[in-house]
Amino acid sequence: MRTLTSIVVVASSAFAALAQPLTPAEQAAGWKVLFDGSSTSNFRGFKQQAFPAKGWSIDDGALKVSKGGGGGDIVTVDQYEDFELALEFKCSAGANSGVMYRCSEANEYPWMTGPEFQVLDDEGHKDGLDPKHTVGALYDMIAPPADKPKCPPNTWHSARIRIKNGVLQHYLDGVKTAETRIDDDHWKEMIAASKFKQWPGFGLERKGHLALQDHGDDVWFRNIKVRDLSAPMPGETPIFDGKSLAGWHAVVPDLAKENKEQASVWSVKDGVLACKGTPAGYIRTDKKYANYVLKLEWRWADASVKDPNSGVLLRVQGEDKVWPKSIEAQLASGHAGDFWNIDSVRMTTDATRLKGRNTRHAHANERPVGEWNEYEITVNKGDVSLRVNGDEVNKAWDCEEVAGFIALQSEGAPIEFRNVRIVELK
Fold first, then answer.
1. Does residue 5 register a pLDDT over 70?
2. pTM over 0.90
């Protein structure tokens, strides 16, 4: 691989600006830097063994493709199945480029096999006249919303691409611009209605390279990072073994009063932890945790139940009761990502979304009832963030930093959990 010493360097300052370092929480969540502002070792030329000797350069900590440079597209050395890619880009006036993913090298260009996040100066390029060709689009397949963020040239903007369990999402400056399943008949129908229909196998690769396009214009990329969502988080520990309630303690006061087994509300089968929903209570971990990244999946087990409710309790303290002192990451249908403050826990949230003890989520991002959803919860010193199916939907800060249990609620509706795992932050 070629590095800073073997490609052209154009710096506008004495030292090129390096990428923003990953935080401990980002590292725990599995993020890795693909381009650090100085080394191109994670990329190579498309169908080449090395990084292009021309056309691409490092410009003040950014990876630049130059107009007329003839470097061609570049791809990641590694391949990805389910992943999340985040980067920043800047276009010159009238420029066109793109970010492709799940690309193979079976055809002449990456875009012949891999879908594309369009990078474009909408106002200065003729492709801006077609909504499906504008910046943030799933190129030639899904147009962004009309009120998407404006992206004038020569300014930095963020892009994020996520594929998880068959769902593809595009984000432009934090706003979702495309979402679709890529494993069903509708996906094949969209391909058949696009320019890509003439390339058999387009969009059907289950795993492939990430690619940055050389479309013949000046475009910059920086702060490029990725995480493999098909792989475990580094150092993660399952806290539900998929076979039993080992490591958990049930608290169901109504059953305790009758001298009945409190854990009977819960059952385990085929890697799924099922909760009947009644009587009210919870199971909590035997171990206390202070700072961590927690991931779990959930779905509602009975679609006939109206307004099903449950939650994940964080930093549970004090007496086992309904409900214990804690921060609740809400799971109630239509409200996943809300916060509830239980027993006056110290925490600060967005005052514009706060009502009493409840802070509603910034926006909804749940799957339909009956489908699996994913929670990613980061509890890091005074900060708590909630991500639902890839979107950060709520944040709290100035929270009391204390070790506490993690609990899953039984609150009136049958619910199922799986893939419950944690990475503790040192």
1. no
2. yes
> What is residue 75's predicted lDDT score, i.e. its pLDDT?
98
CB 43 within 8 A of CB 35: yes
pLDDT at residue 209 above 90? yes
- DSSP string of 176-236, one letter each residue: EEEEEESSSHHHHHHHHTSGGGGSTTTT--SSBEEEE---SS-EEEEEEEEEETTSPPTT-
pLDDT digits (tens, 9 = 90+) for 31-69: 999 999 999 999 999 999 999 999 999 999 999 999 999
pLDDT tens digit sequence for 254-275: 999 999 999 999 999 999 999 9
List Cα–Cα distances, 173 to 76, 86, 113, in angstroms. 23, 11, 26
**d(Cα 300, Cα 332) in Å, to the nearest integer?**
10
DSSP states along 103-162: E-SSSSSGGGTS-EEEEE-TTTSGGGGSGGGSTTSBTTTBPPPTTPPP--TTS-EEEEEE
Give me the DSSP letters along 230-278. TSPPTT-EESS-SS--TTEEEE-HHHHHTT--GGGGEEEETTEEEE---
- The residue length of the chain stands at 426
Q: How far apart are CA 209 and CA 202, in angstroms?
A: 14
Cα–Cα distance between 335 and 342 in angstroms, integer? 17
